[in-house]
Amino acid sequence: MKASNKKILNEVKDYVMIFIGLCCYCFGYSAFVLPEEVVTGGVTGLASLFYFGLRWNVAITYYAINAILLAIAFRAVGKKFVIRTIIGATIATILLGIMTPIFTKPIVEQQTFMNVIIGAVLCGVGLGIVFTHNGSSAGTDIIAAMVNKHSNISFGRTLIYIDLLIISSSWFIFHTIDKIVYGLIFMFICSIAADMVIDSSRQSVQFMIFSKKWKEIANAITRETHRGCTVLKGTGWYTQSETTVLLVMARNYESMHIFRIIKAIDPDAFVSQAKVKGVYGEGFDHVKVNLKKQEAEEIAHFATDDTPSKE
Length: 311
Prior knowledge:
Blueprint: H1 2-33, H2 42-54, H3 58-77, H4 79-99, H5 112-132, H6 141-150, H7 155-168, H8 171-174, H9 177-202, E1 204-210, H10 214-225, E2 229-236, E3 241-251, H11 255-265, E4 270-276, H12 293-304
Antiparallel strand pairs: 1-3, 1-4, 2-3
Helix pairs in contact: 1-4, 1-5, 2-3, 2-7, 3-4, 3-6, 5-9, 6-7, 7-9, 10-11
């Protein structure tokens, strides 16, 4: 029952954070980028092309394009992806419909470059929050997922190609290179901001703890932080005596709690802390690697094959 309640609580938390992320994205786009008539990448950029060229409503066009893409890609991308995308697209459409009529002029007037930078940072932070909490902003992710499934072109590279095509298309409306440059600047800064949010939320640390009270420390860490401890046996070369080392993997935000535990039990403990680029497995992130069925079968075959290598 407790596990079920915790799962529901995590789901609610994810949806709240997805909503906050989409609010941040839509505010940055509606208040800073759209009033400057800058075409960005993705479906929002495609919708803005129709807005600037034909004066179609941005929110309605955004939702209609996503609906068409989902209808085409329903079988290719899977049911779970479709559900997440529908939720994200619906929330984003409502927010864009509310915000775009409010901000008819850029908040910082006569500062196009500044507005593009602020808008890009807000949009990037918003997207980072959405992706961190397993959400989807819909858009060209659908096309990229389809292409990635049926070819060797990577997901990220496909998104870049699509965004470049959309941004470059603004030439046919404005006939100026400035808008294209601003769009490229937006794309670059937005992607950096999104990556920073995603990386910071997943940043992990590794502790090496040398202490005679290693049992007490291990028990306290396991009980209070719910992180496992690995016990390693070693030899101190200076003292020529055996020693026990605790190896602990934790999230960056849990560091201070672990240090308090160590200090409370053994103030003289020798501790090293190091940042690690990624930790994958139970309690951390899942390994996200595209592995085709044929590749998986080949790897499984080699793993069970006891025949010695000719080399």
